[in-house]
Amino acid sequence: MAAKKSQAGYRDLGVQNGANYVKDFNEAYNNAYPAWSQAWTEMKRDIEFVLGKQWSAEEEAYLLKQGRAALHFNKMMRIVKLISGYQRKNRLSLKADPVEGSDVQTAEQLTAILLWLFSSNQMYLTMSEGFEAGALMSGINLLHIGMDYMQDIVNGDPQVFRHPHNQFLLDPTFTRRNLDDCDYAMIRMAPNKDQAKILLPFMDPDDIDGLRLSGMDNKFPLMTSHRDTLNRPRLNLYYFWRRTTKTAWLILDRQTGATREVDMPTAKVNQALEIAYAMHGERFEKIKKSKGVVELDIILQNLCVYHGPDPTGIESHFPLVPVMGTYVPEYEDWAYKIQGLSRQLRDPQTEKNKRMSQMLDIIESQINSGWKAKGKAVLNKDDLYRSGQGRVVWMTDDAEMTDVEQLRGTDVPQSHFQLQEILDREIPDIGGVNQEMFGAPENDNLEVAGVLAKMRMAAGLVGLQEYFDNYRFAKQTVGLRLIEAVTKNWTPDKVKRVTGQEPSQAFYTKGFGRYDCAVTEGLLTDTQRQMFYAELKAMRKDGYAVPMELLVEYMPIQLKDEIKKALVKAEQQQSQQAQRQMQLDEITKQVMQSTQMLQIAQAREKLTQAEENRATAALDRAKAAAEIQDIGAQRALDLINLMFEAQQRIEDRNLQREQAMQAGGAQ
């Protein structure tokens, strides 16, 4: 709880039993500092190497004594920036996917909130900075989920703050990356009084103004912001989280066997059971349990000004997420237990600097290594100390040419150049990168070189997968903590303001973010509408019948109404063109049918004429035969009837053929 305020103001800035909380904080610091101080020394050296401070004080003094400069040929910065740039270029967003059978609407609302938080509070940049400064450089950074009341003094906005390695301490016995087995954690901050008023909104601003600036204490010696640019001291502010237990009540339904935790005081639990007894008898029973929680102590100028739950509402976990490089919890030496990518590059970088410095010193000595001369052999001894082209050294008349000779330096051994080439190859290889990741294929055939470059780049990234996996785990954990902070602090009005919808019935259900949705990565977009648009495009590309109107509706562009008008006009023109094409097709079909009918009539006429000609010829032959053979009249008439019947059958067959051809043309 916060400090109590009386009518005359704060009687005591500290909370009740605050001295005990400060004592616990000091004991925790003294317990963790010996281990972390070893790691801090090496982490500071790692960062110095990346930034270009790669010679020790003894080495710089040795070079200065020899008149040589401490030159740096920094290869580490390029490697660190390359891997960090790859992460930044391939960023993914966070979204809440409903598990099977869960509330889809609630998951969609949480996705919209996550996208809004990350885009409006520059969380992507903060996460990338934690990856670069933590996993790649020092070995660890800490992401702190806290409430920011700068823009919204009523609800606040969950914010992600990054703390470097020299600004926090964790329980040295922790082994899990989500800090579930970490007993305590602390963060040191050095705000001025105005910043303290924002960080501690529950305190009276006048009380903060009345605090005496005593300068830095003896904690966190490597922290750089104890004083401002004018060398004025700042406040000593500590956040101290520790695990403890509290009483929790469970309600058992004897009829169904279901058990549910209720977050109510004991008196209200008893009252609720009395009401339930009147309605259901002895169906319900309360069970007392101990529950693990995390408490926060805020210590300002050696006074505990707050004791209670974390303001974010995150109760069962630390509101802290580490971004680590290599972490081996079973190793005992803290100088090597936690380290970033830069640690393994320090030794080859040191050797490269030494070899380059030696080579340059040899080359410079070749230009002017000095002179060997007798005392009175030259007219002006200053001529021997000059450098540059066209120098003349005047000798006395009685001097011999051998009295003045120039000293020649030794050539640079070829082994130095070979060793330098080896170091140039070894430094990137040790860092897990290859030439393809630098954009330099080793083949003149660009097509083949491009394919090989992708394969080699993918092989190189396999060695860096540990760093990306650690970052992805930290990112998803941050998403879970943000969801818990939102559901504990935001009112329905704030949720509607961000999502455009009323909160669903399951939005404030305790444990929804843990049991009913999974925090996963998705396309990097600023809003949920843009993510939906990208998913629609992917569906249309895969062959799904996604209407163009739906794509335009969610397209993230300006002047969308003008595009809709143009789209409607284009659709009308296409519809009119389609109607004209249908009319043209119908006319063409009718013309083709008429042509077919004309051809059929002509063929029928020709066929009929041919049949008639054959019948006439048969009749003429019969008459001729009757006359020739002098057959009887009755016999001739019978033949004529047979011929007319044959002609009728021929006409019937022609009619059937015509009907069949007409039926085929209609089809």
Set down the secondary structure blueprint.
Elements: E1 5-6, E2 9-10, H1 18-51, H2 57-65, H3 76-89, E3 93-98, H4 104-120, H5 123-138, E4 140-148, E5 157-163, E6 168-170, E7 184-189, H6 193-199, H7 205-209, E8 237-253, E9 259-262, H8 266-280, E10 284-300, E11 303-309, E12 320-324, E13 326-327, H9 334-337, E14 338-339, H10 346-367, E15 371-373, E16 404-406, H11 414-430, H12 446-462, H13 465-489, H14 492-499, H15 512-515, E17 517-522, H16 528-541, H17 548-553, H18 560-629, H19 633-666
Notable features of this structure?
667 residues; alpha+beta; six-stranded antiparallel beta sheet; 15% strand; flat
What does this molecule look like?
The chain has 667 residues and is an alpha+beta fold. The chain folds into two domains: 5-343 and 467-499, no CATH class; 562-666. The protein has 19 helices and 17 strands. It has helices at residues 18-51, 57-65, 76-89, 104-120, 123-138, 193-199, 205-209, 266-280, 334-337, 346-367, 414-430, 446-462, 465-489, 492-499, 512-515, 528-541, 548-553, 560-629, 633-666; strands spanning 5-6, 9-10, 93-98, 140-148, 157-163, 168-170, 184-189, 237-253, 259-262, 284-300, 303-309, 320-324, 326-327, 338-339, 371-373, 404-406, 517-522. It starts with a strand and ends with a helix. Mean pLDDT is 81; it is low at 1-12 and 445-449.
